[in-house]
Specification:
Number of helices: 20
CATH topology of the largest domain: ABC transporter transmembrane region fold
Keywords: ATP-binding, Cell membrane, Membrane, Nucleotide-binding, Transmembrane, Transmembrane helix, Transport
Membrane topology: Multi-pass membrane protein
CATH architecture of the largest domain: Up-down Bundle
Distance between the termini: 68 Å
Strand order of the largest sheet: 6-7-8-3-9-10
CATH superfamily of the largest domain: ABC transporter type 1, transmembrane domain
Pfam families: ABC_membrane, ABC_tran
Structural class: alpha/beta
Protein name: ABC transporter related protein
InterPro entries: AAA+_ATPase, ABC1_TM_dom, ABC1_TM_sf, ABC_transporter-like_ATP-bd, ABC_transporter-like_CS, P-loop_NTPase, Type_1_exporter
Number of strands: 10
């Protein structure tokens, strides 16, 4: 993306604050005007005051210098306030837009971008853009503006000295343009290296218990050090291009001043140039070339920011995989679901996760989903709230294709509890009421009672106000599952999906929960489990193997008709008898 292209991306976010965005450069122009007046006033002070011995003129000129400096100070402060208002609000809006887009992406899209890269774009990249917005309204107005103004006034003061300054400025500008363009791609590579480092950090922090359990702390440190070193090297390669900017600009500045003195001093001695004009010309040269030096350092940040803008735009331009039709309908309250010849394959998978599945989920029934690991149980459940779309076939809700329904109305009627539920930092009350924040306390208590969570909640110090910690770290696996089940029940779904959601519960707690679940009215239940004992009281059980539906019926019917189900049952019952007998 070019610099101009990056500005067009930002224009959408700047538009709500355009008044402030216009006033900030205007204030900067006032400050520039006050700064440009100083060399002329210095020239007047020397020529008409000091050399002429006119004390009154010297005092008047001094007062004008103080007044213009004060006006410049006020304008500069106002510019800084206005620019900060714009940059901070634009940054907040970009972060909100990025997060809104991120939560609409499919799991496969997030895996493609990686969570590390998403975090970098929401934080580091947005910070770079905020810096760019601040500079666009301040430094990138002040630097070129002061340089051009100084050059114009120097040319007006003395044409030959002005041309010398023009040549110096063109040389510096060409050098800055070349280095900035060259550094852009390297800053892009540095940002990708930062993504990788963030991803490595996140993975190891999440899996810290696993790392410690296998005593692999050193391997984790080595992986982080490698990612950290790659980021440092990538950043240095970008900065190496720019390290010569400041010394070269200083060299050109010093050479220009020496040339001006060499050209102007003999003319002062000859009387064809006043000392004040020579001093003013040197001041203009210093202002112009120093402004370009300031622009050089800002172009480093600009190159980084434009690389970040490119990455932000790439994420914002990603179309969510789950799109809602323009004339989408509201989902009915009747959870009569038909799965019709459904196939589903994960990206880059060697075989489909589901193939030709046809299944009916009847309103009010409790349907069990059985099968070995990798059979397709979780994949099927993920398709029901339309977290993904089938590769082929369709799923209908009360006769309507899921793709023809409003996503919000569908998901409001479906609740899904996974084997490893995610809890949020906060209190137990906040977590259980997550899907329905305005739920009365009585509903929270009833949901916790059904989920067999009420007893342990009331025993905890703080009870409902107890903090659960990040990802529910203060709770056991079974407690987290029960809190997640209660959270799902509070939302009063029409279809409740339990995906091995009781795997961490003991047999007695699981049995008590399932008994309470059977008493619920106006709710359809789909319970997926690898343990057939969990599914014995289901109205029907659907058996999956390698993505195929191989049998549907009651427990007794499947024992008689489905060989795979019978093998799983015999295996699990044999293991249970072995445990009981101590073998």
């Amino acid at each position: 993306m070019t610099f101009g292209g990056g500005l067009r991306v930002l224009a959408t976010f700047v538009r709500p604050y355009r008044l402030f965005a216009l006033l900030a450069p205007a204030m900067m122009c006032v400050e520039i005007g006050m700064d440009l007046s100083q060399p002329a006033l210095v020239s007047r002070l020397i020529n008409r005051g000091i050399l002429a011995g006119d004390t009154r003129s010297a005092l008047e000129t001094g007062m004008w210098m103080m007044a213009t400096a004060g006006a410049g100070l006020i304008a500069g402060v106002m510019c800084n306030v206005l620019a900060s208002h714009v940059s901070q609000n634009v940054g907040a809006d970009i972060r909100s837009a990025l997060f809104r887009r991120t939560i609409r992406l499919s799991r496969e899209q997030i895996q493609t971008v990686t969570t590390g890269s998403l975090i970098t774009r929401l934080t580091e990249d947005v910070t770079q853009v905020q810096t760019l917005m601040q500079q666009l309204q301040q430094g990138l107005v002040r630097g070129p503006g002061l340089a051009l103004g100084s050059i114009a006034l120097a040319v007006g003061l003395d044409g030959r000295m002005g041309l010398l300054l023009v040549a110096s400025a063109l040389l510096i500008s060409a050098m800055l343009a070349w280095t900035t363009r060259l550094s852009y791609q390297r800053f892009m590579r540095a940002q990708r290296a930062l993504d990788a480092m963030n991803q490595t950090t996140q993975e190891h922090l999440i899996a810290l218990r696993v790392v410690r359990a296998f005593s692999l702390e050193q391997r984790a440190l080595d992986r982080f050090d490698a990612a950290n070193r790659d980021y440092a090297i990538a950043s240095l390669k970008a900065l190496y291009i720019l390290v010569a900017n400041t010394p070269l600009v200083n060299l050109v500045l010093d050479a220009a001043i020496v040339a001006l003195l060499g050209w102007g001093a003999p003319r002062v001695l000859q009387g064809s140039l006043s000392p004040g004009h020579l001093v003013a010309a040197i001041n203009y040269a210093t202002q112009a070339l120093s402004s370009l030096l300031m622009s050089a350092s800002m172009m480093v940040s600009a190159a980084q920011a434009m690389a970040s803008t490119d990455r932000i735009q790439a994420l914002l331009s990603m179309e969510p995989a789950m799109l809602e039709e323009a004339n989408a309908k509201r989902a009915s309250d009747c959870p009569h679901v038909l799965v019709e010849r459904v196939d589903y394959a994960y990206p880059r998978a060697s075989h489909p996760a589901l193939a030709g599945v046809c299944l009916e989920i009847r309103p009010g029934e409790m349907l069990g989903i059985a099968g070995t690991t990798g059979a397709g149980k979780s994949t099927l459940l993920a398709l029901l709230p339309r977290l993904a779309d089938p590769s082929a076939g369709r799923i209908a809700w009360d006769g309507e294709d899921l793709r023809a329904l409003e996503l919000g109305s569908l998901r409001h009627r479906v609740a899904w509890v996974t084997q490893q539920p995610t809890l949020f930092r906060g209190t137990l009350r906040e977590n259980i009421a997550f899907g329905r924040p305005d739920a009365p306390h009585a509903d929270l208590v009833e949901a916790a009672r059904i989920a067999q969570a009420l007893e342990f909640i009331e025993r905890l110090p703080g009870g409902w106000e107890a903090e659960v910690g990040q990802r529910g770290a203060t709770l056991s696996g079974g407690q987290r599952q029960r809190v997640a089940i209660a959270r799902a029940l509070v939302s009063k779904p029409r279809l409740l999906l339990l995906d091995d959601a009781t795997s961490a519960l003991d047999a007695a707690t699981e049995a008590a929960f399932l008994r309470e679940l059977r008493r619920l009215r106006d709710m359809t239940l789909v319970v997926a489990s690898s343990r057939l004992s969990t599914l014995l009281n289901c109205d029907r059980i659907a058996v999956f193997h390698a993505g195929h539906l191989v049998g549907v019926g009651t427990h007794q019917e499947l024992l008689a008709s489905c060989e795979l189900y019978r093998e799983i049952w015999d295996s699990q019952m044999g293991m249970a008898e072995g445990v009981i007998s101590g073998e």
